[in-house]
């Protein structure tokens, strides 16, 4: 494939043809903010925060869906770009709870980071605001639709797994939100609680229920571990506070394999000092189960007991 040379913020950058402006900038170490972009599922262009200025184009294109061209000149931080990004953040904050002090994502929220970066202290838009009930209908994931910025990362990562597609966009206009089939609570849906959606959420719309109230981001150390419950090698993170592992969070699935609840529960049993009692859905209701059942090891455990009981 032929290479293309363009200029980004005065710096010559050479990348393969077909590369997006966003990827070209990042390859050169040039920062462009994003909220909806997921390298594993690119080309969405919803949040528009990654806009840049390209002389000759009549608007400010989203860099994540704009392909480079030979001789292209790109400005990632011109006055027009900065002003447009401030307006986008302002609009997002217009319908976003201002409860950063108590939000579980405080210190690890991309919207919070960018509001600080671009000096947006509060919204200048006023009007009707979302008022959705908190969805904590399952033991593993809390959904706060009032904090959702409709970036679509959770929808896309769920739909990327064959046979899942548990969530999608529903309704229209101001009422648009991410919903399950028939808009039932997550606990009543076909969700398998792999938590990949939580891992990619850039704000506090999706959080881990077992981690709620256990500490702030800056109080924790994170250490990557590889799950060994199958050959795929998905990665998770140990959340460590005061020298103790207080929870396990999903990071990345292994090649060709989605994340799973079994792997996360198994790592909680291995590493967390006081893991929560595992719960599985039976006849539409979550019920406590043994660790052997949660991890699919009942037959193995029973056989071990038989062997150990033999003379």
Polypeptide structure, described:
The chain is an alpha+beta fold and 311 residues long. It has 3 domains: 3-77, Ubiquitin-like (UB roll); 110-271, Alpha-Beta Plaits (2-Layer Sandwich), CATH 3.30.70.20; 276-311, no CATH class. It has 8 helices and 12 strands. A 3-stranded mixed beta sheet has the order 2-1-3, with helices on one face. Strand 1 and strand 2 form a beta hairpin. It is globular and about 85 Å long. The protein starts with a strand and ends with a helix. 32% of the residues are buried.
In brief:
Residues 139-169, 182-211 form the 4Fe-4S ferredoxin-type domain. With 311 residues, the chain is α+β, with helices and mostly antiparallel strands. The chain has eight helices and twelve strands.
CATH hierarchy: architecture of the largest domain: 2-Layer Sandwich
Distance between the termini: 69 Å
Number of helices: 8
| Biggest beta sheet attributes | 3 strands, mixed
Can you count the beta strands?
A: 12
Determine the fraction of residues in helical runs and give it as a percent range. Answer: 10-25%
What string, H for helix and E for strand, traces the elements in order? EEHEHHEHEEHEEEEHEEHH
> At the third CATH level, what is the topology name of the largest domain?
Alpha-Beta Plaits
Which CATH first-tier class of the largest domain would you pick? Alpha Beta
């Amino acid at each position: 494939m032929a290479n293309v040379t363009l200029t980004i913020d005065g710096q010559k950058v050479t990348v393969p043809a077909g590369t997006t402006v966003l990827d070209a900038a990042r390859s050169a170490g040039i920062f462009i903010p994003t909220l909806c972009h997921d390298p594993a599922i690119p080309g969405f262009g919803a949040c528009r925060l990654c806009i840049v200025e390209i002389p000759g184009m009549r608007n400010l294109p989203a860099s994540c869906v704009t392909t480079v061209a030979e001789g292209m000149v790109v400005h990632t931080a011109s006055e027009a770009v900065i002003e447009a990004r401030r307006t986008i953040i302002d609009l997002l904050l217009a319908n976003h709870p201002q409860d950063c002090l108590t939000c579980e994502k405080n210190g690890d929220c991309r919207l919070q980071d960018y509001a600080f970066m671009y000096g947006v202290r509060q919204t200048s838009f006023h009007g009707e605001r979302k008022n959705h009930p908190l969805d904590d209908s399952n033991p593993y994931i809390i959904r706060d639709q009032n904090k959702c910025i409709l970036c679509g990362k959770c929808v896309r990562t769920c739909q990327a797994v064959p046979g899942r597609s548990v969530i999608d966009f529903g309704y229209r206009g101001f009422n648009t939100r991410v919903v399950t089939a028939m808009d039932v609570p997550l606990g009543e849906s076909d969700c398998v609680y792999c938590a990949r959606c939580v891992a990619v959420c850039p704000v506090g719309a999706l959080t881990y229920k077992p981690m709620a109230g256990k500490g702030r981001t800056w109080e924790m150390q994170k250490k990557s571990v590889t799950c060994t419950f199958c050959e795929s090698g998905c990665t998770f993170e140990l959340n460590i506070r005061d020298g103790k592992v207080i929870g396990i969070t999903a990071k990345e699935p292994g090649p060709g394999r989605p994340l799973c609840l079994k792997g996360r529960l198994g790592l909680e049993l291995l590493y967390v000092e006081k893991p929560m009692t595992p719960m599985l859905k039976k006849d539409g209701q979550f019920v406590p189960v043994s660790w052997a059942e949660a991890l699919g090891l009942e037959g193995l455990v029973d056989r071990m007991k038989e062997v150990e009981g033999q003379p």
